[in-house]
Each structure stands twice: as structure tokens, then as C-alpha cells.
Amino acid sequence: MGGMGAQHEITDLLADYRGGDRAALDRLFPVVYDELRRMAHRELRRERPDHTLATSGLVHEAYLKLVDQARAAPGDRARFFAVAATAMRRVLIEYARRRQALKRGAGQPLLSLDDAISADDRTDSLLALDEALTRLGTLSERLSQVVECRFFGGLSEEETAAALDINARTVRRDWVKARGWLYQHLQDQASRVRPARAI
Predict the structure, then answer these.
(1) Does the pLDDT of residue 86 top 50, yes or no?
(2) How many CB atoms within 10 Å of residue 8?
(3) How many CB atoms lie within 10 A of CB 78?
(4) Which has more confidence, 43 or 1?
(5) Higher pLDDT among residues 59 and 196, named by residue
(6) 130 sits in which H/E element
(7) What is the DSSP letter of 74?
(8) HSE of 127 in the Cβ direction (CA atoms, 13 Å)?
(9) Exposed (0-12), middle (13-18) or buried (19+): which is 58, by Cβ within 10 Å?
(10) Which of 87, 138, 144, 187 has the most C-beta neighbours closer than 10 Å?
(11) Residues 6+ apart with CB under 8 A from 175
């Protein structure tokens, strides 16, 4: 994710901003844009084909959330992209919630029944994953952060390790543990909402 020069430049710009240089954020955006765009593109490929948010839209919305957190966020490049993964998760969840609220019509284009079921399933799945990830965060914040970095941010094991200040072996172990927990939690939730079979 970028060369050493870009890594130091990001860290320096974040430090400048925290030191009171408001223009540092304007200089930061072009430096991080390509990487944020890569993260957003990868994330949107998992979304439904008719998603109303384009890659550049997700980048810009996530960046606005990052600007709000930039003063308090840890100041190096790896942590910046971990925070970016969280921001992208929040943007996508907000869109999913809005879609769910509007899925009964309200100006939405007409979809075939198959398309509507498919799109709604993806929206419901994303919201269920967000709820499960929030629950996991109450049990282990680190496991939740690993999922955000790996799933929502698309960071590698090494990048996630740097962002969370742990080693790559711990990331690998946490990733397996978190996926297992999330899978079980989502299965349990699905079985609770399934209608009971007639006897």
C-alpha cells in the first residue's frame, strides 16, 4: 500500500494536522486517494450491482468521516487506513439502513421480484454482519478491529498487524477466530428468525 515516501508523508501530514495546520488535510487527500479508492472499489464489488453509491462517492463520504476523527486518531499511516476501514463500514451500513427503510417503494425504481429479493438479501446480510460485528466488539474489541481491517478495509495480515500494533501471526489467529464466531452468531440469528416447521 504505497512506498516508504508516501507512508512517511501520510504520517507527517497527520501530525501537521494534529499540530493545528488545517491545510494539511487538503494536502493529505491526494496522497491517500488512490489507496482509499482501491479499498472502496473492493468493498463495493461485494455489494449489490444496483448500489447507488459509486466508488468515488464511498471514498468522499468515508474521507469526510475521517476528517472528523483525524485530530483524535492515531497518527501513522497504518492506523489511518484502519480508521478508514471503520469509516467505510459506517458509510455502507448507513446506506444499507436507508435502503431497508425505503425498500417498500418511496421513489425506488421497480425491480423484478428476483432482483428485489437478491438486493434485499444483500442489504439484510450487511446489516446482520454489522450487528454481529458490534456484538463481537463488546466481547473482544481487537477481534472486531481485525475484521474491520481485513473485511471492510481489505488490509493484508501485515497491514492489519501494523494498524493494530500486533504481529501478523496474532492477526491470522484472530481472523480465524473472528470469522468462526461471526459465522456461528449469524447462523444462530438466522435459525431464530426462520419460521418453525409444521409438525
Answers:
(1) yes
(2) 12
(3) 22
(4) 43
(5) 59
(6) helix 113-139
(7) -
(8) 15
(9) buried
(10) 87
(11) 146, 147, 150, 157, 160
Q: What is the rounded distance in angstroms from the CA atom of residue 160 to the CA atom of residue 117? A: 34
Mean pLDDT within 12-39: 81
Least confident of 25-39, 49-63, 174-188: 49-63
- Which of 50-54, 97-101, 134-138 has the highest average model confidence (pLDDT)? 134-138
CA 24 to chain CA centroid, Å, is 24
Q: Are 79 and 73 in contact (CB under 8 A)?
A: yes
- Lookup: cell for 127: 446489516
What is the secondary structure of 145-157 as a DSSP string? HHHIIIIIS---H
Crossing angle of helices 113-139 and 77-102, in 10° steps, is 130
Higher pLDDT, 43 or 13: 13
Provide the whole-model pTM: 0.62
At residue 157, the pLDDT reads 93
d(CA 12, CA 41): 26
List Cβ<8 Å contacts ≥24 apart for 42-50. 42/154, 43/88, 43/92, 43/152, 43/154, 47/92, 47/122, 47/126, 48/118, 48/119, 48/122, 48/123, 50/111, 50/115, 50/119
- Using CA atoms, how far residue 166 sits from 39, 42, 137, in Å, is 22, 24, 17
Across residues 11-22, what is the average pLDDT?
81
**Contact of 168 with 158, CB cutoff 8 Å:** yes
